[in-house]
Amino acid sequence: MTTLPTRRGLLAAGLAAASSACIFVGSKRGGTSNSPSQRPPADDAAGTTASAPLASIGGARPGATPHTRFACNIEMWFRNLPFPQRVDAAADLGFPAVELWGLDGKDLPAIAARARARRVEIAQFTAWGFVPGLNDPANHDAFATAIERAVEAADVLGAKKATVVGGNDQPGMTQAQMHEHIRVGLSRVAGAAEAADLMLILEPMNIRVDHKGHCLYGSPEAVAICRAVGSSHVKLNWDLYHMQISEGDLTGRLKDGFDQLGYLQLADHPGRNEPGTGEIRYARVLRAAYELGYRGLVGLECWPRDGELTAARRVHKADMW
Questions:
Q1: Is the pLDDT at 19 greater than 90, yes or no?
Q2: 7-39+46-318: in CATH 3.40.50.720
Q3: pTM of the model
Q4: Residue ranges of the domains in the chain?
Q5: Mean confidence (pLDDT) of the chain
């Protein structure tokens, strides 16, 4: 049985110690796009209507969607290809952008070259992962150094946003203390982010399914942290998958915290697959974000359940409203 790597596992090893040159040896990882253990039984009703069979939606380039601009997560999609070719594969499906996790093991100039050649935007990457925690002030010097390196990487990639993770629970610290340490760490680098025009996007997780022991989950506390920092370049990576598990009321919470929204990501629940495979009515949620005024990219941080083409068609269907 194929075991899918987790974002936590990939980010835990060495993000803060990434090379300052931002040029890495490319790696070719094997694997499949889908995990049998995560793939529910096929359900045609999840992706079709009587008037629009799924196979007809979006044509050959379903990533070119009617309203929302999506960034294909090439850590989770096209996993049998080297990273530069994953950019090609996303472009072939019509996606206008891609997103990455950490930078280690990636040939950033090669990825950037393919993105430029295919006119694909690199929406964001991860600048600081789960470990060591931003919620521990002992790690703030390393965090500041990592943001300096992220600025260099963003210049290579042409990216304008970089994700920051708050960290796992710290022994002996209350949640309020950990959140305050996150605020202090982000405040320390806010000026550098503004000067470099690189938006740092803090991502709350969920502790029920994917990230037990993480210190920051749900929107109210994360919104409060970013409001307290008070920077145009410190906002939230608002992952709707994590928010659904943590708090629900997706459109209401999004409205409440919209002033701190920097970036949206999505996956359906359960399964963390593409829209149309779970319980979330994404056509309504995406329309609500649009009506609130969001025109940024939406990251597809989801595992394609039945292959990338079918997943892209389901994404297209979710944007038909």
A1: no
A2: no
A3: 0.87
A4: 7-39+46-318
A5: 89
Confidence at residue 52, expressed as pLDDT on a 0 to 100 scale: 74
Per-residue model confidence as pLDDT tens digits over 98-130: 999 999 999 999 999 999 999 999 999 999 999
Return the HEC string of the chain: CCCCCCHHHHHHCCHHHCCCCCCCCCCCCCCCCCCCCCCCCCCHHHCCCCCCCHHHCCCCCCCCCCCCEEEEECCCCCCCCCHHHHHHHHHHCCCCEEECCCCCCCCHHHHHHHHHHHCCEECEEEEECCCCCCCCHHHHHHHHHHHHHHHHHHHHHCCCEEEEECCECCCCCCHHHHHHHHHHHHHHHHHHHHHHCCEEEEECECCCCCCCCECCECHHHHHHHHHHHCCCCEEEEEEHHHHHHHCCCHHHHHHHCHHHEEEEEECCCCCCECCCCCCCCHHHHHHHHHHHCCCCEEEECCECCCCHHHHHHHHHHHCCC
